[in-house]
Amino acid sequence: MSPPLRIGPIELDFPVVQAALSGYSDWAMRVIARRLGAPYTLCEVMLDRFVNEVSGGRKSQRYLKVTDEEHPVAAQLMGANPDEFGPAARLLVEAGFDVVDINFGCPVKKVLGRCRGGYLLSQVETALAIVSSVREAVPAHIPVTVKMRRGLDDTAESRDNFFEIFDGAFARGVAAVTVHGRTVVQKYVGPSRWEFLREVKRHASTRTVLGSGDLFTPQACIDMLRQTGVDGVTAARGAIGNPWIFSQARALAAGLPLPEPPSVFEQREVIGEHYRLSEMLYGSQHCGKQMRKFGIKYSQLHPHSKAVRDAFVAVAQPGQWKGVLEQWYAEDLPGCHPAPADDLKDCEQAAGVVG
After folding, report:
1. DSSP H helical segments within the chain, as ranges?
2. Most confident of 39-53, 133-147, 181-195
3. Half-sphere exposure of residue 54: CA atoms within 13 angstroms, side-chain side
4. How confident is the model at residue 188 (pLDDT cuts 50, 70, 90)?
5. Is residue 242 helix, strand or coil?
6. How far is C-alpha 197 from the geometric centre of its chain's CA atoms?
7. pTM given for the model
């Protein structure tokens, strides 16, 4: 078995966790992931201003929802002004989150244009001021973590900025840093450079580093751990519609063969429960849009994936969702492992960044 992963005082029994996914990793997705083997999850990224301004409203209650079975769970913050991060971080802790993660990695154009996310990898002083603001604002027992990419681009200046922020964040008290092996400019084009993750972990020594990028299969999660030496990995797009990636990775780490993919009946049970949780979160009239994009991803595990995908795409009314399950999940056929490649482009889910 892989050694446990430590994030400050929090010890996780397995080093494959669910990443923050804008527009996806809401309460419903996180609960399903935890039940299927994820030891730790991160909420979709929220803007500091959103948390500060609407923390008492109905919308914020939806995004700040945390329940007992989730712990430990992290909230992820993004913004541009260090002064707004501290108050927002305190509100997230009050809401029940166990860790506050800072996003310095989002590569989406509209985020960069507002001097947020990956843009801050070019602004060393501001990035470190944000780290200090969050670390000073929350209690000492609450871990603060950072999500980064390997740089804004592949210039020597970007590389220097990366390591200055990386070392400076640890010096200011962060418990762990997650590093995605692509640059901000690269977005999701081309492979993630795992060799850079190996270099970063050697540089970090005993400091906790998590890796990210191209983790679409449970085997890829294990391979990254072994090839790079990072302390943990974060499954992101590979976990959308495939929460079984966590239990399958646990089996591989224990030296067991890759488990068979979930059967159609097993898929139906999880999809149905995911819908029920989403309905609790958004209401019956509003959860359909959220679940449609999950259904599209779940369909990759079905033996008739294209037809099932089309059926989920066509859902327009709440009752039609049940109809898809009754039509396509009525016979317990063997499931399929999803293709390793992913078809999401340019972090399209970041269009749902809260705030």
Report:
1. 27-35, 48-54, 58-63, 82-95, 109-112, 124-137, 156-171, 194-204, 218-228, 244-253, 264-282, 287-298, 305-313, 318-328
2. 133-147
3. 14
4. confident
5. coil
6. 18
7. 0.92
- Buried-exposed string 292-313: b where 16+ CB fall within 10 A, e elsewhere: ebbbbbbbbbbeebeebbebbe
Relative orientation angle of helices 244-253 and 218-228, to the nearest 10 degrees = 50
Q: In the beta sheet, which residues pair with residue 16?
A: 233
Distance CA 136, CA 153 (A): 30
Q: Tell me the pLDDT tens digit for each residue of 97-145.
A: 999 999 998 888 899 889 999 999 999 999 999 999 999 999 999 999 9
Distance separating alpha carbons of residues 15 and 3, to the nearest angstrom: 7
**Predicted local distance difference test score (pLDDT) of residue 346:** 33
The token pair at 352 is 């749902």
pLDDT above 80 (res 54): no
- Residue in 167, 203, 236, 222 with CA at minimum distance from that of residue 24: 236
Phi-psi region of 75 (alpha: psi -120 to 50; beta: other; left: phi over 0): beta
Q: What is the DSSP string of 297-342?
A: HHGGGSTTHHHHHHHHHT--SHHHHHHHHHHHSSS-----PPPSS-
**CB of 240 within 8 A of CB of 21?**
yes
Structure token pair of residue 75 = 């909230």
Tokens of 312: 């989920």
Give pLDDT tens digits for 247-286: 999 999 999 999 999 999 999 999 999 999 999 999 888 8
How far is residue 29's CA from residue 65's CA, in Å, rounded to a whole number?
A: 12
For 31, 61, 87, 180, the CA distances from 281, given in Å and listed in that order, are 12, 9, 25, 30
d(CA 135, CA 121): 18
Supply 189's token pair: 């084009």
Burial of residue 333 (number of CB atoms within 10 Å: 0-12, 13-18, 19+): middle
What 3-state DSSP class applies to 208? strand
